[in-house]
Amino acid sequence: MDGFEHPGGPWPETGGPPASPTATLGGPERYRWLIERIPAVAYVQVDAPPGQVTYLSPRIEQLLGYPVEHLDRPTWISLMHDEDRDRILEAEAHADATKEPFDEEFRMRAADGRTVWLRDQAVYVPPAGDQPGHWLGVFTDVSGEKRLEQELRETVSRFQTLLDQVPAVVYVDPVGREPIASQYVSPYIETLLGITPEQATTQPDWWVRALHPEDREAALRAADEVDRTGEPFRIEYRLVRPDGDVVWVHDEARLVRDDQGRPLCWQGVMFDITDRRRAEDDLRQALELERRAAERLREADELKDTFLTAVSHDLRTPLATILGIAVTLEQEGEVALAAEERRELLRSLAAGARRLAALVDDLLDLDRLRRGVTEPRVREESLDELVAECVDRLELGSDHPLELDLAPLRVPVDRAMVDRIVENLVTNVVRHTPRGTHLWVRLLPDARGGAILVVEDDGPGVPRELGERVFDPFARGPSANPQSPGSGIGLSLVARFAQLHGGRAWVEERPGGGASFRVWLPGRRAAPD
Asked: What single string gives the DSSP state of each residue in 486-518?
């Protein structure tokens, strides 16, 4: 190739530069010596004819394996990679037209078949004197950089693929307590929360808005704390999707610092734990059901023991009375009985039988109520007459002086159930108060409709601690009759019969002392509590 005509004269063809620049080398030789040793290929390209290279440093042979004299322009263009050729020729034409600096990267085919990446940088030098306008440029081998870039792209692609496929949300958040959009959020955010990564990286408050109202305060407090301390973030909370569905997440993040320890960002991951939390909730509910079932079994076992203790005594007592009287009457031929003695025995026999029949009725009613097969048969009754008939049938005698105060009321009730309510309330007072205790039975109209049945006494009253439990099955209070303490069934039947009417039963302290048992019968059928 012809040497470039330097303004100070032609560069001599020396047959190769000296080993080192010495004082014996003139200016042009020294510059040429330096150019041919830099780790790049220098070239000079003149304007006319277009593309004519007047100088190309010998290092090009080290890069491509072709001698300098073989690399004319047509050959150079033919060695250019097919995918780069049109782009580079277009860029050259643009630079020739505008004289703007040229800077492009492209691939060349080396003599040994390798692909070499070159970076071509050139600036235009305008004409001066007898020197034409020309381009001064260098080719730099950037193959290593390109390989690194490719490896980096492949590495990023692999990690991106991993992030795209991992069933969790990976995120990078800036440091700071003020709401700032995330720097990166993996695509799984759309599956988990129903928003796109673009929304998460452009909307500063997306996370705060998605927090479940019941968890927002705790989550924000935890985030503020780790922002202040730099400690790892680890918390479980709920997020609400735009469609209203709720998801549970386990969120972990760590603070990333630079070499000087300054905070750079938070890197974290959110795992969807909705199924796990639902399973835990199901397990807790199952355990709670099991606990309640065990509690019911325990209560049933205690109830059975209490039932056997209570009923065995209550059954034996009237049976013993009946058996004793029956044996005495059976031996009447051997033992002479006065007429009055015989009548007293018969009265006692009838009383024992009635007491035994009442206990059997109570047990049967309790069982029917437990199985839910008892329904009131309601019709309008003269409630005052019904109460009076029941009290008269009980034959209380003089042991408990009785006063009736019955307002005339017609109320829809189940006659048999009201009869049992009155009987059990009155019998309960007689059983649990000493002889001589006054007894009042009242029937009052209720302002809400219906009636209130009141059975009061001036006895010792009901202990405060038993006030709410006295209507439970087999619950017993202090008895004035140790030989017949009661089974603890009667008052529980009172409460249940009242509930079946839509009313209720309760006990109060009577003004002046004693107990005041009250039953509200609303006069209309309502759903029991």
From this structure: --S-HHHHHHHHHHHTT-EEEEEEPTTSSEEEE
- Full DSSP string of 449-500: SSEEEEEEESSS---GGGTTTTTSTT-----S-TT----S-HHHHHHHHHHH
d(CA 136, CA 159): 43
Q: Does the model's pTM come out above 0.85?
A: no
Domains of the chain: 5-142 (3.30.450.20), 166-272 (3.30.450.20), 284-374 (1.10.287.130), 375-521 (3.30.565.10)
Phi, psi of 372 (to 5 degrees): 70, 30
Determine the pLDDT at residue 246.
95
Per the listing, tokens 């080396």 go with 110
Residue 339: C-alpha distances to residues 148, 321, 326 (Å)? 128, 20, 16
Chain segment 83-109, per-residue pLDDT in tens: 999 999 999 999 999 999 999 999 999
What is the phi/psi pair of residue 457, to 5°? -145, 165
Q: Determine the Cα–Cα distance for residues 500 and 413; give it in Å rounded to an integer.
A: 10
d(CA 49, CA 213): 77
| Maximum separation of any 2 CA atoms in the chain, in Å | 171
Task: For residue 257, give the 3-state DSSP assignment.
Answer: strand
Q: Give the dihedral of Cα atoms 272, 275, 278, 282; nearest 10 deg.
A: -150
Residues in the chain predicted with pLDDT less than 70, given as ranges, are 1-31, 48-51, 177, 299-300, 302-318, 332-336, 355, 358-359, 362-374, 467, 473-488, 524-529
Question: Across the strands, what pairs with 365?
Answer: none
How does pLDDT run across 170-228, given as a tens digit for each residue? 999 998 767 778 999 999 999 999 999 999 999 988 999 999 999 999 999 999 999 88
